[in-house]
Amino acid sequence: MIRKILCIGVLTIAALPSWGLAADNGVLDFTAGELRRIMQHGPWPQAWSPDPSNRVSGQRAAIDFGEQLFFENRLSGSGKLSCGSCHVPERDWSDGLVRGEGMQTVDRNTPNLVNARYHRWYGWDGAADSLWSQSIRPILNDKELASTPQHVAQLLRKDAELACHYQRTFGKSPATVTDDETLLVDMGKVLAAFQETIVAARTAFDEFRDALARGDRAAAARYSLPAQRGLQIFIGKGNCSTCHTGPRFTNGEFHSTGVSFFTSKDRVDPGRYEGIRQLKESRFNLLGPYNDDPARTTAVATRHVDLVQRNFGEFKVPSLRNAALTGPYMHNGQIGTLREVVRYYSEINPDRLHADGEQLLKPLKLSAQEVDDLIVFVESLTDFRTNWKRSTGGEPSCT
Amino acid sequence: MTKRVLAVLAIALLAVPAYGCVPELSGGGTRTLEAGRYTLAYRASPPEIPLGKHFSLEIAVCANAGAPLPDSVSVDAQMPEHRHGMNYKPSIRREAAGRYRADGLMLHMPGRWDFIFELRAAGRTDRVTQSEVIE
Lengths: 399, 135
Fold this sequence. Notes:
By secondary structure, chain A is mostly helical. Chain A has helices at about 5-15, 30-40, 60-70, 85, 130-140, 150-160, 160-170, 180-195, 205-215, 215-220, 225-235, 270-280, 300-305, 340-345, 370-380, and strands at about 1-5, 255, 260-265, 265-270, 315. Chain A has a domain at about 60-195: Orthogonal Bundle (Cytochrome Bc1 Complex, Chain D, domain 2), CATH 1.10.760. Helix content of chain A is about 35%, strand content about 5%. In chain B, the strands form two sheets. Chain B has a five-stranded antiparallel beta sheet with strand order 1-2-3-7-6, with no helix packed on it. A four-stranded antiparallel beta sheet of chain B has the order 5-4-8-9, with no helix packed on it. The chains are: A mainly alpha, B mainly beta. The interface of A and B includes residues 3 and 242 of A. Strand 1 (about 1-5) of chain A pairs parallel with strand 9 of chain B.
């Protein structure tokens, strides 16, 4: 067996001082392996470049237009709902509800939008492969905004303020675009440009991780011992970092963790299985005609994703950044608090897992202190400082 | 001194596995495996396989004495301890005689992964497995 160690990890750990630290110094005595795993959860924020599949990604005019559309009730079929109805800035771009409320109650918990620009797949089932195509889905969904391409296109053509923003962003009047679907996709792309700007700031964990990396013992000691002990469980006996990997604390993929996929007594949510099926059928996927990148450089995952039976009942691993602000938890919002989530995994019933499922999940049997420590650690991944709010009040800004 | 150098060289030569043929792939990160009628070499691109990101494999195959070149080559990866494979089905294309490129692989969890190479020719399949630990 060949052991592969990332060069960056080796260099980083080699540069760390041999502190031989004990808890009484304010920093736990992490092993070299633990330090390597801690380093993999940073740095933060991650580097980012504009989305090549979206020609207006990162452009100021598109971001401003996207923010206006994000809170535009007239996009919905009823004229009473917008993206911002469920993705509420003051609620960390979610809604705090068990399940989302659009035109009807939907089957799933509303995911928050923080750091959405870094995702590979969107939605609990990953049925969208770009932020712009994901932005179209709820607008057309009958249970959410219940709109149509025709409705969206007419709004963009007829409203002077929106038409002005469109002209400013795309360099032409929407009245000259005769195809409704093209305008629908353009709307998705400006909504994406706005959502790409929603990024969590650095957290207490990031300060600790970077202090370890540069050998700054005093700075590392500012991170509380309960958080450090929780981190040790997270990367150790808890096996949490097996799925919650990297700087975003998610591998961005899909797993079955025994959470019920029944939405009622006689109806199930197929999760990833249906997500892949919808993705492959979608005209808006990255292999389709609306990808602005002729080379399809970001379409590798879409081209190769494989639909298999075990995808049934799998849901996306959520990022743990800002997790303290995003409850209720799980794809169906069935768990109300972080403490209950930790207890769920601590006492998980293996009988609830797929018979052919993963062998990773086993009851952790955490002590009361370990539960407390793990919660303190997860809370330390949360950006409590950013006060999300609209940058404008929605007043006309173009005409 | 000369005797010592020769001894070291002899030990080094003895430590090199003798393959039935030499695939046309070498350089850092290249692994060479015996696969029944074939010898297979592969190298990841990028050279260090990243956790949770797509990567490719360059593959070279040569036929040991008397064997035909394979009609097809495939690669998959499994995580035996977790009883699952990848979420992606790699595509593989022949670039030249005995040279292939596999795209679309992605190892989404840390731990031990087994690469499984299958080479088919004349109605038979030769299979070889190689473990990698991803951190």
